[in-house]
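Our platform keeps sequence and structure together, in a single record for each protein. This encoding replaces a full spatial description with a residue-level series of whole-number codes. We quote a single record here, exactly as it is kept in our systems:
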Amino acid sequence: MATTALKTIADLEQIPGERWELVEGELREVPRPGGRHAKISARITNPLSTYLWDNDIGEIYVEGGFVLQLNPDTVLGPDIAAVLKHRLLPEEEEIGLMHQAPDLVVEIMSPGDRASEVLDKVMRYLNAGVAIVWVVDPERRRIVVWKADRTYQELHASDTLDGGELLPGFQLALAKVFR
């Protein structure tokens, strides 16, 4: 039986151009998002970034690489991530991959995404210490909010998304996201 050698963060960093993630030593190509995906990403990023900036409580990262596990290495690139101010790395440590889990992750589903793969990613984020994961499903016009305790809540276009205890006072009408 042939075995393939596990890839490492160093291997991942040598790949030019295309988008890749590393899951327990296995390289996975991540397709470039389409127009709807990018539009919805901006509709979430802008108010979230404004909230973090106005309240001086953290930073937003768009498609940044986060090291979630070592040996075997796992690096995921959420569509949107937020790290609260008290957990921010020094700027010189942000040059490459971020060696920490974010506090909030937003994953926007693409038409080809399988539910089982998305759930696997959600669990990897939560296992790494992410407090909240928002899974945005443009096709069904909903957001599923996952919490650290593995409970979730499904919100629809007529609902308002809030930041819970992590981002007190943050609110986003989903009608604006899915208009």
The longest strand covers residues 167-173. The helical segments are 9-13, 35-54, 115-127, 174-177. The radius of gyration is 16 Å.
